[in-house]
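Input structure tokens:
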């Protein structure tokens, strides 16, 4: 039997060593899921309603997709009560794993007294939020409560009107009582809309004149749902709090800039860098 050459023996030993190192190497961080539960202001949209955009749609771009999966379960027209009654919550509980996150943002439909099929009293709204929080924690996952985003409603003096007083208050109280991270999108979005002003703020919402878009030939004056710009701005507000509050796991897994995007902007003509399309 012919004896293997030293080169072949060395190659075999190196291959075996690499295999052993790979087998015993520490595994990388587990990919976590960020579940979004809420209403139409957060939900994914179909092309037939474009440019209406839920703020959960651009949220995915803020995370490293190799480490975080954003699973948007928000649905148009749902309150906390109907989300539970339609069995939309239990499948999420069953799927939750340790370290996952659940962003919980309701209120728009809970407070709609003129829609009895979805209305939820503040007392029941509180109970439902507590259920979401406690059952998320029961799976060693992380609940985050978010107050509902403001509607486009200015008073005659040009000041944004607070439109979710009772339900934002309950959300804040539950967050305090159960020591849950709170993202106060109600206040943050009101501040943002006020900065835009009564006219420019229309750019954030689904405000279309007749002929602006084929999906809305007669136009649309909607002060609840967002344009693409508005959805992105609301997602930025939420992400600013993920970073500011240093939410574990999420704040560590943000998307990294590409080499091209990481180049600082030119300060003058001499510093300008040519770009490739």
């Amino acid at each position: 039997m012919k004896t293997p050459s030293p080169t072949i023996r060395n190659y075999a030993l190196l291959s075996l060593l690499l295999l052993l190192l790979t087998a015993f190497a520490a595994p990388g961080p587990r990919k976590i899921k960020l579940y979004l539960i809420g209403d139409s202001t957060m939900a994914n949209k179909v092309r037939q309603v474009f440019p209406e955009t839920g703020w959960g749609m651009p949220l995915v771009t803020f995370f490293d997709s190799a480490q975080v999966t954003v699973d948007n379960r928000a649905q148009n027209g749902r309150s906390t009560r109907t989300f539970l009654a339609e069995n939309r919550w239990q499948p999420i509980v069953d799927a939750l794993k340790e370290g996952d996150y659940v962003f919980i943002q309701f209120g728009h439909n809970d407070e709609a007294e003129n829609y009895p099929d979805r209305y939820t009293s503040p007392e029941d709204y509180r109970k439902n939020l507590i259920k979401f929080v406690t059952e998320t924690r029961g799976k060693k996952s992380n609940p985050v409560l978010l107050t509902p985003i403001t509607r486009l409603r200015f008073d005659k003096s040009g000041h944004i009107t607070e439109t979710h007083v009772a339900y934002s208050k309950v959300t804040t109280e539950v967050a305090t009582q159960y020591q849950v991270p709170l993202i106060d999108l109600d206040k943050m979005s009101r501040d943002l809309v006020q900065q835009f002003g009564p006219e420019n703020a229309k750019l954030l919402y689904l405000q279309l004149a007749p002929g602006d878009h084929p999906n809305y030939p007669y136009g649309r004056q909607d002060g609840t749902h967002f344009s693409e710009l508005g959805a992105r701005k609301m997602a930025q507000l939420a992400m600013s709090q993920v970073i500011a509050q240093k939410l574990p796991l999420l704040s560590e897994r943000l998307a990294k800039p590409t080499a091209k995007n990481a180049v600082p902007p030119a300060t003058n003509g001499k510093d300008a860098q040519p770009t490739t399309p």
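The longest strand covers residues 32-38. Residues 266 and 274 are 10 Å apart (CA to CA).
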